[in-house]
Write a structure and sequence with these properties.
heterodimer; A: mainly alpha; MetI-like fold; 2 strands; 71% helix; B: alpha+beta; Rossmann fold; six-stranded mixed β-sheet
Chain lengths: 289, 354
């Protein structure tokens, strides 16, 4: 009986360990390889040495990767674009959801349905119209001078700030907040914005974490097609496009591994900090980044 | 400044008409209780006064201002919710100070008012706690404290005691009564509990299905209910109703007969009846007395000894039920035959039939 249970438990752990290995090995391989010269890296791939910090280890790959491409700039661009979009998204999506849930106005259920319906449109369907738009509209225009959208930060930020999903997640969460709290604050003299800032948002930690995680992954990992379309200059290029560019430079494998390690670190840190919220968000929304 | 006047108030939610032509005058400093069964519209009426719902038609005045279109914060009302509605992310102190910080009062002024409210509600030790560390009764006191510090011209209470246990309910009820005696501010209190209504109110408004059934002082309503609903709703146990037929109307009384009653004279209390008209006789359980020669005969179904009185549930001959509240030393066993008499001058007669 106990033996039977122990065997079953061991079987389960072995299975979990196996699955964990499938996910962890590529990351370990990437990190270890980033410290090795190409020749050794290729030799090691046929043995377990590929996963071990052995042989001729150095930071040469990192040095050369940084020499070959402005990786620091790419990282700055990605972090800046992601952080700005994330903060604006949290603010605008939550305040829109607040208006949908707590304030009564004519036609709000129709508008909400329309907003949510836009979620089914994949980016590819709006990519070309959006490109035409940013191509023809001025960003800022004063007498004699016109700034455009192409090759800029704003073209990578503004179209991405609020998507239906974020509004929807906030709406669902706000609906479950006790309405009495909002009404009590109203009777106590709070304006709608004070209710939002002092009562609703402080109680919305879980949904803020969920939206932050989804937005971070969307912006940091998946921004690829759009920047290729609208950013030609190196100055505004995010890391994912930078990676593609880096590949084309006839680079050594070790340097590519170094580049990959550098761009993976922010994701790992973000993940570790928000791990608990991350799991909860996937479990509660069924949405994965 | 805290007088309230509701004139011809109606409220519809889409096609549902929930408040029907309500007229109520509440005087400055009065403790007014809205009472009625669940779904009678009493909470909706309170929310209309608070400004949390729009009035469909009619005129609402607080003091000398028409407030129909004013925001809640412009009405100078404070409200205590059934769920307490205290903010879980704030300490007790921050909760109580909420309305004051919204009004941007000075730090010193806020501290002074919060301490004063805390002293009045005996919760000085709790100020730095979070709501999750408080018991139900303490949370209720925080909610009351939050209302008190704002020094409103009207307090609104929405079933504030219904989440408390029986003992706490009684002590909190007394605290609210003491608070009213001390502040002398107009209070409107919604409850479905007729004991709370009877004990707290200067004026009771009995509501049913969105209509006012009767307005008056507690004892007026108890002794002179205008209709069967009010008669049955106020008083515990409820008034007994027996079907009767009117025989004749005199100067002050009306003579009725019923299957088990013989002829009985009952004060008509200003109502007029036609001979032969079916009517309903109402007798409070407290006014029934065991009497072997009494007209009302039946068998005991259940006898409950409450200590202060014994409440007996009796099945009369045709299956009609009768409740009697007798002296505490009366012992009746289920199945035993009983007979009751009563004083016709303490009974009521209504033209309605249930």
């Amino acid at each position: 009986m106990t033996l039977d249970r122990a065997t079953r438990l061991m079987g389960r752990y072995l299975l979990l360990l196996f699955i964990a290995c499938i996910f962890v090995f590529p990351i370990i391989f990437m990190i270890m390889s980033s410290f090795k010269p190409d020749l050794q890296l290729l030799q090691d791939t046929s043995s377990v040495r590929a996963l071990l910090p052995v042989g001729d280890l150095s930071l040469d790959n990192y040095r050369e990767a940084f020499d070959r491409a402005p990786i620091g700039l790419f990282i700055f661009n990605s972090v800046f674009i992601t952080a700005t979009t994330l903060l604006l998204s949290l603010f605008l999506a939550s305040i829109a959801a607040f208006a949908f849930v707590f304030i009564d106005w004519r036609g709000k259920s129709v508008v909400l349905a329309l907003v949510v319906a836009t979620y089914i449109l994949p980016f590819e369907t709006v990519a070309v119209p959006l490109l035409l738009l940013v191509n023809n509209l001025p960003w800022l225009s004063a007498e004699g001078i016109t700034w455009g959208w192409l090759n800029s930060y704003q073209v990578q930020i503004i179209p991405w700030i609020v998507r239906a999903l974020e509004i929807f997640l906030f709406v669902q969460y706000f609906k479950d907040l006790p309405r009495d709290l909002v009404e009590a604050a109203r009777v106590d003299g709070a304006t709608w914005f004070q209710v939002y800032r002092r009562v609703v948002m402080p109680l919305s930690g879980p949904v803020i974490a969920t939206v932050a995680i989804l937005k971070f992954l969307e912006m940091y990992n998946n921004q690829f097609l759009w920047p290729i379309m609208v950013v030609q200059a190196e100055d505004y290029r995010p890391i994912m496009v930078g990676l593609q560019y880096f590949f084309q430079l006839n680079t050594a494998w070790g340097e590519i591994m170094a580049y990959l390690t550098i761009i993976t670190v922010p994701v790992l840190i973000f993940y570790l900090v928000l791990q608990r919220a991350f799991i909860a968000s996937i479990a509660s929304t069924g949405v994965k980044g | 400044m805290g007088a309230i006047s509701l004139r011809g108030i109606n409220k519809r939610f889409g096609a549902t008409h929930v408040i029907k032509d309500v007229n109520i005058e509440i005087e400055q400093g009065e403790f007014c209780v809205f009472v009625g069964p669940s779904g009678c519209g009493k909470s909706t009426l309170l929310r209309l006064i608070a400004g949390l719902e729009d009035i469909t038609s009619g005129e609402l005045r607080i003091g000398d201002r028409v407030v129909n279109h004013l925001q809640p914060k412009e009405r100078a009302v404070a409200m205590v919710f059934q769920s307490y509605a205290i903010f879980p992310h704030m300490t007790v102190r921050e909760n109580i100070a909420f309305g004051l910080t919204i009004r941007r009062e000075s730090r010193a002024e806020i501290d002074r008012k919060v301490s004063e409210a805390a002293r009045m509600l005996r919760m000085e030790d709790l100020l730095d706690r979070r709501p999750s560390q408080l018991s139900g009764g303490q949370r209720q006191r925080v909610a009351i404290g939050r209302a008190v510090v704002r020094d409103p011209s009207v307090f609104l209470f929405d079933e504030p005691l219904s989440n408390l246990d029986a003992a706490l309910r009684m002590s909190t009820r007394q605290e609210i009564a003491a608070l009213h005696a001390q502040l002398k501010t107009t209070m409107i209190y919604v409850t479905h509990d007729q004991v709370e209504a009877m004990t707290l109110a200067d004026k009771i408004v009995v509501l049913k299905e969105g209509r006012v059934m009767q307005i008056g002082a507690p004892m007026d309503l108890y002794h002179n209910p205008a209709n069967l609903f009010v008669a049955g709703f106020l008083g515990a146990p409820s008034m007994n109703f027996l079907p009767v037929t009117v025989e004749a109307q005199g100067a002050r009384t009306v003579t009725v007969t019923g299957d088990m009653l013989g002829r009985t004279e009952v004060p008509h209390r200003g109502r007029s009846f036609a001979p032969g008209q079916p009517a309903t006789l109402g007798i409070r359980p407290q006014y029934l007395r065991p009497d072997d020669s009494g007209a009302l005969r039946g068998t005991v179904r259940v006898s409950e000894r409450l200590g202060t009185e014994t409440v007996v549930d009796v099945a009369l001959a045709q299956g009609t039920r009768l409740m009697a509240a007798l002296a505490e030393d009366v012992i009746l066993t289920p199945g035993a035959p009983v007979a009751f008499g009563f004083d016709g001058y303490k009974a009521h007669v209504f033209a309605e039939t249930p």
